[in-house]
Amino acid sequence: MAKEETPFISPVRKALIPLAGLGTRLFPASKAVKKELFPLITPDGRCQCLLQRLLEEAFSAGVEELGLIVRPGDEALFDSLFKPLEKAVYARLDEQARAEEELLVSYGRRVSYIRQESQEGLGHAVYCARQWIGEEPFLLMLSDHIYVSSGKLSCAQQLLQAFAANGGQSVLSLYPVAGEMVRHYGSATGKWLQGQNNCLQIEKFVEKPSLELARTQLRMSALPPDNFLCIYGQYALNAEIFALLEKQICDNERERGEFQLSGALAKLARQDRLLGYVVEGEHYDTGQPRAYLQSLLGFAHLETVRHTKGGGHEETRRDTKTH
Ligand code: UTP
Hints:
Elements: E1 14-18, H1 29-32, E2 39-41, E3 47-49, H2 50-60, E4 65-70, H3 75-79, H4 87-91, H5 95-108, E5 111-115, H6 122-127, H7 130-133, E6 138-141, E7 145-149, H8 155-165, E8 170-178, E9 186-192, E10 199-207, H9 211-217, E11 227-237, H10 240-250, H11 261-270, E12 274-278, E13 281-285, H12 289-300
Parallel strand pairs: 1-4, 1-6, 4-5, 8-12
Antiparallel strand pairs: 2-3, 6-11, 7-13, 8-11, 9-10, 9-11, 10-12
Helix pairs in contact: 10-11
The chain binds uridine 5'-triphosphate (UTP).
């Protein structure tokens, strides 16, 4: 008899997706269409938009409510994805499109908008959601990547499982990257946790390190030579992050003119309160033109996608920003 799969139970109820960035790297197209609403062709030939993929990843990981952080006035643009279609249009859809439409409308009932009045960086955007989140832990997913798991659980589920297994300590997702690519990413190092081959206590972050610096300061045992662990926008955080962000904002601690999330995460790491989880899977960068093109091609040609997943392609990893 086939063994029944145990349903995944999420340790968090809420997820946040910040969508309030300016999208300058995708100008001028992003002037007319929010970059998260750009199209994506799925391996089975559907035309979705990037945000739809992220919503699937969040909701399939068991999240109940989703907060979208937006620029004032953008609510209506994102709402166009959730508003039920006119009956006459719905009637013309094929069965699969109708199912997708119904799913989107149902997602919409679980979405709240949170405004970021001024674009002062990712750390600031996350801080804007403090009241909506309250004291709960939450899943944070940046909008310029999609993910593809190579394991049984989706990338977000794997991260949340690691979060639950470690008593709700904040965890971020990490992916091994070849040395020649490491200078494009935020990279982390630390000590492997005993008995958990994918989890480490993060001790150090470096933004876009040179290969020389990575070789001397960011090596991790158990990775192939010249491979390093990089960060791609999925985090399971507990509410303590808000106090750190608040201090950063009160002290006007900016990097490159903005309040970065990485500043608050680095503080957590210095206090031994941040873990990293090496995901079984890949990610696609969709935040800048060439990477977006390569991601589109690579993702559309994936042979199998078991969950909501992103897949790796070397070109997709170029020029990724860190936060
Ligand atoms: P990015 O660094 O990719 O910035 O933001 P961006 O503005 O979206 O794009 P570029 O660099 O101008 O091309 C990473 C994530 O943080 C959000 C973005 O929407 C994206 O999900 N973000 C960034 C905000 O919500 N608010 C901000 O002030 C900055």
